[in-house]
């Protein structure tokens, strides 16, 4: 079974848009391998599209975080809130159907109130020294753990509803 057996790609995408509208975070639905299932993109800040414009950035930062979050949520069957290697807050809620792990829904792209963007790490991972990240950091919003927990609750409620239909 896969995620599109539950609801259509269009409905998953609509959910991503709703999550983005609520949070301002990069909202994504991932399959059980950590791959995006939609093409919807709405950026939380100006740093993330810079990272994603380089294959090295995707591989060293985003893909590593997605694999970690996918593995952890599949094993623990619990939501996970943490930071990626670039310093962005990230959350993922696992999607299980009849005990089968199908993927995750989550968001990223803000920093926790005591966090900071790892510009040095980003530049080293990409292999470029001047990506203009210092100017783009001002576009990164802060988020509290309480706010993230409310988003996790929202996602869990939505998933419970669609999985029970």
Topology at a glance:
Blueprint lengths: L8 H15 L2 E6 L15 H6 L2 H22 L3 E4 L5 E9 L2 E13 L6 H8 L6 H4 L5 E2 L1 H20 L1
Parallel strand pairs: 4-5
Antiparallel strand pairs: 1-4, 2-3, 3-4
**CA-CA gap between termini:** 16 Å
The helix/strand class is alpha+beta
Shape: globular
User: Would you count the extended β strands for me?
Assistant: 5
β-sheet strand percentage: 15-25%
Can you count the helices? 6
Instruction: Profile the largest sheet.
Output: 5 strands, mixed
- Radius of gyration in whole Å, from Cα? 15 Å
Helical content band: 40-55%
Order of helices and strands: HEHHEEEHHEH
Average predicted confidence as pLDDT: 96
Question: Unreliable runs, pLDDT <50, ≥5 residues?
Answer: none
How does this structure look, described?
The model has no long low-confidence stretch (mean pLDDT 96). Strands 1, 2, 3, 4 and 5 form a 5-stranded mixed β-sheet that branches. This protein has helices at 9-23, 47-52, 55-76, 119-126, 133-136, 145-164; strands at 26-31, 80-83, 89-97, 100-112, 142-143. The chain is α+β, with helices and mostly antiparallel strands. The relative contact order is 0.18. The radius of gyration is 15 Å and the shape is globular.
Descriptive keywords:
single chain, 165 residues, 5-stranded mixed sheet, 6 helices, 5 strands
In short:
The chain is an alpha+beta fold and 165 residues long. The chain is 45% helix and 21% strand.
């Amino acid at each position: 079974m896969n995620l599109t057996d539950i609801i259509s790609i269009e409905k998953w995408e609509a959910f991503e848009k709703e999550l983005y509208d609520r949070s301002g975070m990069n909202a994504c639905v991932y399959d059980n391998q950590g791959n995006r299932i939609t093409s919807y993109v709405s950026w939380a800040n100006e740093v993330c599209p810079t990272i994603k414009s380089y294959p090295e950035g995707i591989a060293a930062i985003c893909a590593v975080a997605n694999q970690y979050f996918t593995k952890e949520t599949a094993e623990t069957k619990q939501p996970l809130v943490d930071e990626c290697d670039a310093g962005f807050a990230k959350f993922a809620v696992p999607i299980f159907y009849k005990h089968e792990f199908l993927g995750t829904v989550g968001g990223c792209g803000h920093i926790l109130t005591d966090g900071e963007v790892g510009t040095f790490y980003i530049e080293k991972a990409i292999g470029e020294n001047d990506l203009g990240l210092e100017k783009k950091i001002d576009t990164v919003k802060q988020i509290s753990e309480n706010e993230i927990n409310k988003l996790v609750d929202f996602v869990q409620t939505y998933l419970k509803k669609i999985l029970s239909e």
